[in-house]
Amino acid sequence: MSIPTTPVPEAPFTIGTPEFSADPLGHYAWLRENAPLARTELVYGPVSQPIWILSRYRDCRAMLTDPRLPRSPAGGAAIAAGLPEHLRLLSTESLIMKDDPEHKRLRTLVSKPFTPRMTAQLGERVRELANDRLDALTDRDVVDLRQDFALPIPYTVISEMVGVAEADRPRFQDGVAALLSDRSAEGWDEQVGDLITFTRDLVARKRSAPGDDILTGLIQAEQDGDRLTEDEVVAMVFTLVIAGYETTYNLITNAVVTLLDHPDQMTRLRQAPDDEGLWRSAIEEIVRFCGPVGGTKPATAAEDIDWDGRTIPAGSTVMPLLGSANRDPEAFDAPDRFDITRSPNHHLGFGYGAHFCLGANLARLEARIAVQALLTRSPRLSLAVPRDELVLEPMPLWTRYHELPVHLD
Ligand code: HEM
């Protein structure tokens, strides 16, 4: 069979530039309409890489279960190429960049605390943290809801689950913030390198003083049957901590912005704090409409692939744009309408297929309890700055506000 040779269109813009980040939805709409499979560049700090992007819902979904598009080894290597040698394990050793059977083996090792039953048991703790934060903030005229409320809740929860001691959390959080900041900043390598050394140290300390936590479980798995290397343990700690709070605190922040933008829907939620069904559909709609993650980790074409008559050459890096799929009018009725009763709602905000978000139940639980506590305790919640002063950070494929100043009362 001969492979068709229709050229893949070049997108007339680059993902990750301030221009793209200023209007991702406009760019997504253009892509879906004009170039559902396109070639472009992905810019991240000083690193730029060529990338093939898919923007329609059905293509994104199909791609995420297509065996011709595995993650490793080239996908991990593509990200790792932008990192100094001593940091590459963060990408190459993480389960998010592996395929079966390694992926399954790593995922099985950490899955247990994330089942719906185990997650539900965390509800009380999340409620306590949300109320403690609100207690601490009541006297302030202006509160940065992102930093002072949305962030500490999931960060504390995931740190407790993984086993990062309270005294170590500020240092770990600073290191992670550096890791996710501009890679061209001075001292970036050293700061992130220091974080890895610190994590290796944490693993060593946990070896001699085991606890009832995920890290201890991983170390025991490593000792039992040579099933995990130390690099894998370190990468797993990073993956869990970063995935466990960076996403969720932005989801909570984005949820509040979106509800303030849609006061009728906010009132509806306020009036029905115990309506399980309504809250469930509201959280799914929030993830669809303003979920923080706009794309998955890249895959690599294992062979020349015929995609709707166009060729993705072997070795190409390919990424589905989840943020675009979630606004595709072919998949969602009136996709730009925020509707907390939307059903069904098969969004891709938590990914799809083998790498479907491990922490989706936890994220839903945390977002729901945090937003519910806030709406109940702050009946007059309002922005403390004009709406157009809320700025999105120019991060490729992330919906992340720089800050969210509000009056709680
Ligand atoms: C994977 C989104 C919260 C842990 C993913 C993926 C997405 C996602 C889109 C797929 C990535 C890919 O295919 O490359 C989100 C969002 C969250 C959230 C939007 C919150 C709003 C969490 C939490 C945890 C978590 C709370 C807890 C630890 C993970 C892990 C993976 C993952 C470990 C990789 C799974 C694998 O490779 O098998 N998440 N996530 N996430 N998420 Fe989340």
UniProtKB/TrEMBL annotation:
The keyword Repeat does not apply. InterPro entries: Cyt_P450, Cyt_P450_B, Cyt_P450_CS, Cyt_P450_sf. PROSITE patterns: CYTOCHROME_P450. GO terms for molecular function: heme binding; iron ion binding; monooxygenase activity; oxidoreductase activity, acting on paired donors, with incorporation or reduction of molecular oxygen. Gene3D superfamilies: Cytochrome P450 (1.10.630.10). It comes from the Bacteria. The keyword Oxidoreductase applies. Keywords: Heme, Iron, Metal-binding, Monooxygenase, Oxidoreductase. Pfam families: p450. Belongs to the cytochrome P450 family. PANTHER family: CYTOCHROME P450 YJIB-RELATED (PTHR46696:SF1), P450, PUTATIVE (EUROFUNG)-RELATED (PTHR46696). This is Cytochrome P450.
